[in-house]
């Protein structure tokens, strides 16, 4: 059985999925698992495609102190107990910097180049690279593919790519990259089947999960994003504030005496829905709460999605469709209804029954703009890229741009 392993490594967990390669390059999900609680209370859990449990094991803290150890426990379980020996491994890597506009087959040179972008994503990039390095060391013949959250946005023109700062900083890599690119790419590839009429037109995709951003697409390509240099910008998120006057950061440093590491921790973990509500970072809890601060957080979220939609519609010079995706976008009919309310000035109306059913097309019959709900699948996107690079060989490996 030919399989592809997909790895998404973070600071405290390594998520993995296994896809079976069927005829004509079709991929079928077989296993979904994770090693969580790395360095605290490690646990391996895995389920089959239908959600049937395959493993649930706790480990002593010293058995899985870091990401490479988690990778080796997951790998050992896959090899010796499930008999999975993947043809190749695809990795989610948050930052491809200015270099990579598409996935790439990994070798030591690629890893060195990707290490340069640790400074651009210090909380994510080192964890993404750790399993790549450990597989390179232990299984050097297994092909590995790095798939970037930034790559889909490399089609941005210079106006979308710049901040109004001196050019030298742009040349060093201080740019508006945009993230969630694998999710947007999946939606872009799904649109021709789901909504062929609008797939090539002006579309806003709202990826609303615990991380949240929006992408303006024209002709299936990204032209603008709400996120920029880091995944902090744009929409409010579970624990990140979204757009913030840089003066607030200066205030935290000069008036509150916060060091850089403290500010970073604060912005990534204590703000957003959690900070504003003081109740939770989880939209389900906020929607269920009667606490006025929780209500403010929900209102603020919908308001900012609407505000940013206006910005992206301006970038597109019009709008032909709006798409909801990710945890909140796919599951919360309440948030979709509130966002649609914010878009009423554009002629958007919702069909309440279709919205409640989480149907694919949820706009009302007289809506000037169709509104869709499309479940995203970043892992399938990574598996597809991995398989296609495997089949097309190493020739594409050189197709990355130089840093200017
Ligand atoms: P990520 O992959 O960034 O962790 P997801 O796309 O899985 O995030 O989204 C997770 C978020 O989706 C949760 O934090 C939760 O707030 C939200 N969510 C999931 N289901 C629902 C629901 N039924 N109603 C409202 N929010 C939901």
Automatic annotation (TrEMBL):
Q: Please verify whether the record's keywords include DNA-binding.
A: no
Q: Which terms in the GO cellular component ontology are assigned?
A: cytosol
Alphabetically list the UniProt keywords: ATP-binding, Cytoplasm, Kinase, Magnesium, Metal-binding, Nucleotide-binding, Transferase
InterPro entries to which the protein is assigned, alphabetical: Ac/propionate_kinase, Aliphatic_acid_kin_short-chain, Aliphatic_acid_kinase_CS, ATPase_NBD
Q: Where does this one sit in the cell? A: Cytoplasm
Q: Which GO terms describe its biological process?
A: acetate metabolic process; acetyl-CoA biosynthetic process
What the entry lists under Pfam families is as follows: Acetate_kinase
User: One GO molecular-function annotation for this sequence?
Assistant: acetate kinase activity
EC number of the protein? 2.7.2.1
What this chain does, per the record? Answer: Catalyzes the formation of acetyl phosphate from acetate and ATP. Can also catalyze the reverse reaction.
- Family that this chain belongs to: Belongs to the acetokinase family.
NCBIfam families xrefs: ackA
Under what name is this protein listed?
A: Acetate kinase
Recorded source organism is: Bradyrhizobium shewense
